[in-house]
Amino acid sequence: MPRPTSHHAIVIVGGGTAGITVAARLRRAGQHDVAVIDPAVDHYYQPLWTLVGAGCAKLDATRRRQADVMPRGVTWIRQAAVQIDPEAQEVVLADGGTVGYESLVVCPGIQLDWGQIGGLAESLGRDGVSSNYRPDLAPRTWDLIRDMREGTAVFGMPSGPIKCAGAPQKIAYLAADHWRRQGVLDRIHVVLVLPTPKLFGVPVFNAELERVVDRYGIDVRLTSEVTEVDPDGREVVVTALGDGGTKERLHYDIAHLVPPQSAPDWVKSSPLSTGDAKGYVAVDKGTMQHLRWPNVFALGDAGSTPNSKTGAAVRKQAPVVVANLLAQRAGRPLPASYDGYASCPITTARGKMLLAEFDYTLEPRPTFPLIDTTHERRDMWLLKKYGLPFMYWNLMLKGRA
Question: What value does the mean pLDDT take over residues 279-289?
């Protein structure tokens, strides 16, 4: 086997939210030989893409150069990882090179499986179809919403774990609010297709969202998902997840659709994978340590932890990974445990938001106990639009929050 083209004490695969945050925390902890493998030129604050799609933010506000967020003193390997050999302790790069490691952190993000909805990949950006899950299409979503005056608008969420599971709902509410303000909502049939039996898995937040849906008159199709797009006929196929998979063809004038998601294909086929169809990196849900290789940790969207895949989850996972990785390197017991905390800021109107915070128990876990964030609030909107982005760029990516 060829010798590695480079070697580092700690290698991080992925330079997104998780990778940069962990790298910054490791540097602050005094680690001098840290490498990040990632080919990206730009780094995005993705939670704002919903506001871009609703005409409430500009795409440029969500983007920084990757070079500007890479922690000082970290070796940046500007290649894509394509394989991990945990026995040899090597990462294989797209150019054929290899990077050896003593400790590994795997956080390459999540894969958007556009092709799993028939006709979606071919329809994106035209024929009234868009998705805020791609940055170049988020402004297109706003064009469609702004120009619509009557007809049917379909908003769909796929089954299975996805990043920011509330996002498919958020844009539906923001669109309905815009049409209400324009005086045309009564001429638009808003359909929200969800694979879940309720709007939200935590009862107190579900109750509030039911009130939001009633206010806008949204037609909610629960336990269903969009499985096909016919752009020529301007129809989507909505398939019931029970009842023998009953199918309904539904006309649309605009459709905002979100693809099924999974671990990147190369992760699915790696020894680190859970081995199922989604193929996430198999880790202990508390320690974030791999179930078979103790010098490997994972966090973020590509990890197998059964929590919502959000940036807020990464913020709580990152210090656990760093503390446990350093302990493992020193031969000490792992001191930290992740409790499944996740946060979903759900925008319900321009200027209104509820902040859903919960953990593995699906019980509310409020950061601000004296503030009732289970109901729509103006101050939570300001947190979403200004406070959280400031924290992300200035604190989280610098290992301070």
Answer: 98
